[in-house]
TrEMBL record:
UniProt cross-references to CDD domains, sorted A to Z: GGDEF
Membrane-traversing stretches: 6-27, 34-56, 68-84, 96-114, 120-137
Alphabetical UniProt keywords: Membrane, Transmembrane, Transmembrane helix
PROSITE patterns named among the record's database cross-references: GGDEF (PS50887)
Stored Gene3D superfamilies: 3.30.70.270
Keyword Transmembrane helix: yes
Domain GGDEF: 180-307
The protein, known as: Unannotated protein
SUPFAM superfamilies: Nucleotide cyclase
A Pfam entry, by short name: GGDEF
Length: 308
């Protein structure tokens, strides 16, 4: 049984060594060290396979010229480890193919064990099971890391007070908004600074949260409402000029009645700059100018002038 095991293991290991050496050669961009390692393993494995073929046919003789292949292969492998790494090789990580190969080998060995019990000794079975267990453990870690990375990306584009998208998210959405019929609205709360000065920032944050809730409820489905910072908000809304302008007045109306917070009746307003996506570009700058005009004049909603 041991003879069968080793006669099967020799060619399999030789092929795996060739595959691993080939992957290393490609991933290290034909560096000298990787090239020497590949040539050494290729020569050593070829000598191994040649020995097996000669042995099966009964024509192998110790000390043949073919035996020198093992020696030259070992010298090339040793030389590859002797050479110093180049700077570019330090940046090369573990290629996914190596991980896939290690995961593939263990189930293959276990399948062979199930088909032919006793073909492999125990010191092969135990590492195969351990490798499979470590592979699943590694997969669970990778999945958790991917989930955390996704959450970090969401948090990077989310306002921590209101839970709305932040300026970064709005700018990203604005980049794909150029071919959409709709409008950009910029909103600035009126008389919000006295709220912070009088009641403190905790009450001010609650006001911002309730403002965000009122704005969200008044907007049609598919709109993007974002807090840009401080007491400024932005909205990307789909629809015709009349529909988006009507939505702007609906947003203004949400602040027409006071906010009741911890027994305090807090009254604030909102100034809105409206710019319809007419293809002229500079939506953010034009909406910002219209918003400041609305704040200066006190009319509530100002429509940006079309670009001539």
């Amino acid at each position: 049984m041991q003879d069968q095991f080793f006669s099967l293991l020799f060619p399999i290991c030789d092929l795996l060594l060739l595959i691993i050496a080939s992957i290393a050669l490609v991933t290290h961009r034909l560096q000298l060290r990787a090239t020497l390692l590949f040539l050494g393993i290729a020569l050593f494995s070829t000598s191994d396979l040649l020995y097996l073929w000669l042995a099966v046919n009964g024509s192998y003789r110790f000390g043949q010229l073919t035996d020198d292949g093992w020696l030259v292969g070992i010298v090339l492998i040793a030389l590859s480890f002797w050479l110093r790494q180049s700077k570019s090789e330090h940046d090369v990580g573990i290629h996914p193919a190596f991980l896939a190969l290690s995961i593939f080998i263990s189930p293959t060995l276990l399948a062979l064990i199930a088909l032919r019990p006793g073909i492999f000794p125990i010191y092969i079975v135990a590492p195969a099971i351990a490798t499979l267990f470590m592979a699943f453990l590694r997969m669970s870690i990778v999945i958790r890391q991917a989930k955390n990375l996704g959450e970090e990306k969401v948090l990077a584009r989310t306002d921590d007070i209101t839970g709305l998208p932040n300026r970064r998210r709005l700018i990203a959405e604005l980049a794909t908004f150029s071919k959409t019929e709709g409008a950009l609205l910029l909103l600035d709360l009126d008389a919000f600074k006295p709220v912070n000065d009088t009641y403190g920032h905790e009450i001010g944050n609650v006001v911002l949260q309730q403002v965000a809730q009122r704005f969200t409820r008044s907007l049609p489905t598919g709109s993007v409402l974002a807090r840009l910072g401080g007491d400024e908000f932005g909205v990307l809304i789909n629809g015709s000029y009349e529909e988006t302008l009507e939505a702007a007045y609906a947003l203004q109306a949400t602040c027409s009645y006071p906010f009741l917070i911890e027994g305090h009746s807090i009254k604030i307003g909102v100034s809105i700059g409206h710019v319809h996506n007419d293809g002229a570009g500079d939506l953010l700058e034009r909406a910002d100018a219209a918003m400041y005009e609305a704040k200066r004049s006190g009319v509530g909603v100002v429509q940006a002038q079309p670009v001539v």
